[in-house]
Design goal:
heterodimer, A: alpha+beta, Rossmann fold, 2 domains, six-stranded mixed beta sheet, 11 helices, B: mainly alpha, 12 helices, 1% strand, disordered N terminus
Chain lengths: 428, 286
């Protein structure tokens, strides 16, 4: 049964008025047209957008800078009016286009929480009632009556984020909130989003981070040149996002591309082949997206060759949710000599799983020779279960212990010597 | 994490109306308005030791200066009006409210840009909250003024009950004018320069340093067409000297009351409608 809609967008268009070259306008222009708009031109941000988001869905919105992602979010948030089209929303919507909207540095945390909570849609009484919970969540109990101007930027972010998680909303709009904190904060944000998702809230997330899209989102939308380029599977959208980014680089006539980039662009514009599918299997041969810590990783990929090309190779990377490269494989030859046109090649790779619990993206690549990409990237997501995220990694290890001879001349051992002697004991 | 769970049954889709001047819930508009106004008012006195006492003390300080300069140094001018310092202080406090409220409201939309661009709320909250906060200050100031009047020998009288009429009318005029100025300023910052000059001119075109009666006959209707004039004049008559002539006594009903009322209505209605028209697009016009 299809889920009910949380958001329905139909025929949405938005156009901005961009002032002319001279701003403010000259006196003459003003006198000729005293109350009218300043001269300028119109800029179509997007035109005739239609899409739906289901209730309880984790939905990503991606696109290059200037493609209208934030404008779309602002229309959904009722910050800007639409020129044409309708937006329907089910239930209460809370926009988080920025953390801590309305924070005043001269106010205490208490006053700011109430102010910010009310800005985000709580009633003043409700905001006051939730205050203790919010402060506890932010871990700022000792700084409640401190003016926010004396807060560190990290504390401010925590406070803003804490308010955000305590605003009752059925639909949350989130714009790059993750970009402001350190790795630990981002990890925490991820956990909180997951929990909100589990509670059945609908989340719309604008981001530039493809690992985030592939790991959290159930569906995603790629905006490109004012239109919906792709909507659907996050992996698919992430791949298209990379493609669109690179072709845009090529289109800039005055831009000297580094050699590698131009090769990637060529590979995407006119690929030798494509990785049509990639997935993981467990020991029983079942397709999975989640493995237990330590369980062997078995990566499968299917490559369709479009036309013959020499020295076909395959390689893959494992990327953590914060973008860190955890592992890069060696190149594997896909065929002897050259890949035949219309060939379908299956790749199977097994990797020892020493990854700490967490979310990962596995990116697969095909190459023509050692450094010429042969086609677009393929992404697949993998979750390693077990324990809390960020727990220590179970590394194979060895500790060597050798006995230190105690002093024999009858003098009592000095403190330092005693420590050295005690160390192996602790090691055993 | 929030404690309230999302209801299991699907929620109904409803079309969102987009940003607007007044919002779709009066309750929410009022909640935000009150919260932000009180916050703005309190912000003036955070990091001060005397706190709100300042707003009561200010009229006293004013009075001290006026007393020394005008009464003692310049001698009793204003036609030997014995209660002129009290009248002056009333006029000054009312005009200062008008001037401060319009000046802050003028730049309010620009100064709250981050709020406007990042979240949805009735746009009217911004100029209105600054006005309301200025009105709270005015009430505190008036408490100081009335204490001062009693101390300097003005007897409390039944006419004092009419004071709220003047205060409400002044706040209404100031607020609607602020709405007009706040959206006009977004269209052109020339309005800011223009308004500070206008305020200076209004200070002299309003009976503050003088009373209407000392002016030549021909200019009285002109000065009284400024809606601030009858407001201040009535305040002075009702509070300080009930036997004195009101603008209606001096000029008749039309010139004394109806013309300034019409001017105020034109300002008020244009402020209201212009704000309502511009508010939905104010965030993108910034």
């Amino acid at each position: 049964m299809p889920r009910a809609k949380a958001i329905e967008v139909r025929g949405l268009s938005k156009r901005f008025h961009v002032p002319g070259r001279k701003a403010p306008p000259t006196l003459r222009a003003r006198l000729r047209n005293p109350l009218g708009r300043t001269p300028g031109r119109s800029l179509d941000v997007f035109h005739d957008l239609s899409f739906d988001v289901e209730q309880g869905e984790f939905f990503g919105i991606v696109g290059r800078n200037g493609t209208g992602k934030s404008t779309l979010l602002k229309l959904l948030a009722s910050v800007y009016p639409a020129d044409t089209g309708t937006i329907k929303v089910a239930g209460r919507l809370a926009p988080f286009l920025e953390l801590g909207v309305g924070f005043n540095p001269k106010l205490t945390a208490r006053d700011n929480v109430v102010l910010n909570g009310v800005m985000m849609g709580l009633s003043p009484a409700e905001a006051r009632r939730r205050f203790d919970e919010i402060i506890e969540f932010a871990g700022l109990q000792d700084y409640v009556d401190l003016q926010v101007k004396n807060y560190s930027s990290g504390m401010k972010v925590r406070l803003g984020f804490a308010v955000m998680t305590h605003v009752d909303a059925d639909v949350l709009l989130i714009d790059e909130v993750l970009a402001v904190g350190d790795a630990e904060f981002q990890e925490r944000c991820g956990d909180v989003f997951e929990q909100m998702h589990r509670e059945g809230r609908t989340i719309l997330l604008v981001t530039h981070s493809m690992p985030i899209v592939t790991q959290y989102c159930e569906r995603a939308l790629l905006l490109h040149e004012g239109e919906i380029d792709t909507i659907g599977e996050p992996d698919l959208v992430a791949e298209r996002y990379y493609d669109v980014n690179l072709s845009a680089m090529l289109e800039r006539p005055d831009h000297k591309l580094p050699e590698m980039s131009s090769k990637i662009v060529a590979a995407i514009g006119d690929p030798y082949g494509r990785i049509v599918e990639s997935w993981f299997e467990d020991a029983g041969g079942e397709r999975v997206e989640r493995l237990e810590a330590g369980e062997q990783i078995e990566l499968h990929a299917v490559v369709n060759v479009a036309r013959e090309y020499p020295d076909p190779r395959f390689r893959f990377h494992i990327v953590a949710s914060d973008g860190r490269l955890m592992f890069a494989s060696d190149d594997v030859a896909l065929a002897e000599g050259s890949a035949a046109a219309d060939a379908r090649i299956e790749v199977e790779a097994t990797v020892e799983n020493r990854l700490p619990p967490g979310r990962y993206t596995i990116a697969s690549y095909i190459y023509c020779g050692p450094d010429t990409p042969a086609g677009p990237t393929k992404m697949a997501r993998l979750e390693i279960a077990g324990g809390r995220q960020g727990e220590a990694m179970p590394l194979r290890h060895e500790v060597k212990v050798s006995e230190v001879t105690a002093p024999t001349n009858g003098k009592p051992a000095t403190g330092e010597a005693a420590d050295v002697a005690a160390a192996p004991e602790a090691g055993r | 994490m929030s404690t309230t769970a999302v209801p299991a049954q699907p929620l109904e889709l409803r079309e969102i109306p987009g940003p607007s001047a007044f919002g779709d819930s009066w309750r929410r508009t009022w909640d935000m308005l009150w919260l932000i106004s009180v916050t703005e008012f309190r912000l003036q006195y955070t990091n001060t030791t005397l706190g709100y006492l300042w707003s009561v003390l200010k009229p006293f300080a004013f009075f001290g200066v006026i007393y020394v300069v005008i009464d003692q140094v310049l001698g009793r001018f204003a036609n030997g009006d014995a209660e002129f310092p009290q009248k002056l202080i009333l006029g000054l406090v009312l005009f200062q409210y008008f001037s401060e409220a319009t000046n802050t409201a003028l730049r309010s939309i620009q100064s709250k840009e981050s709020m406007l661009r990042k979240t949805h709320f009735p746009r009217i909250v911004i100029p209105l909250s600054l006005n309301l906060s200025a009105a709270i200050t005015l009430v505190f100031n008036l408490v100081g003024v009335f204490l001062l009047l009693i101390i300097t020998g003005v007897d409390p009288q039944a006419h004092w009950l009419l004071v709220p009429v003047v205060v409400v009318a002044l706040v209404a005029l100031t607020t609607t004018l602020s709405m007009l100025l706040s959206v006009a300023f977004v269209r052109s910052e020339d309005v800011g320069q223009g308004w500070s000059l206008t305020l200076r001119a209004l200070f002299y075109a309003t009976p503050i340093l003088y009373t209407l009666t000392i002016l030549p006959d021909w200019i009285q209707p002109l000065i009284n067409a400024n809606p601030l004039s009858p407001l201040i004049e009535y305040m002075r008559v009702w509070v300080v000297e009930p036997s004195a002539a009101t603008p209606v006594d001096l000029l008749g009903v039309t010139e004394g009351l109806l013309i300034p009322l019409a001017v105020a209505l034109v300002i008020g209605l244009s402020g209201f409608f212009w704000f309502k028209r511009d508010a939905p697009r104010i965030a993108e016009a910034l």
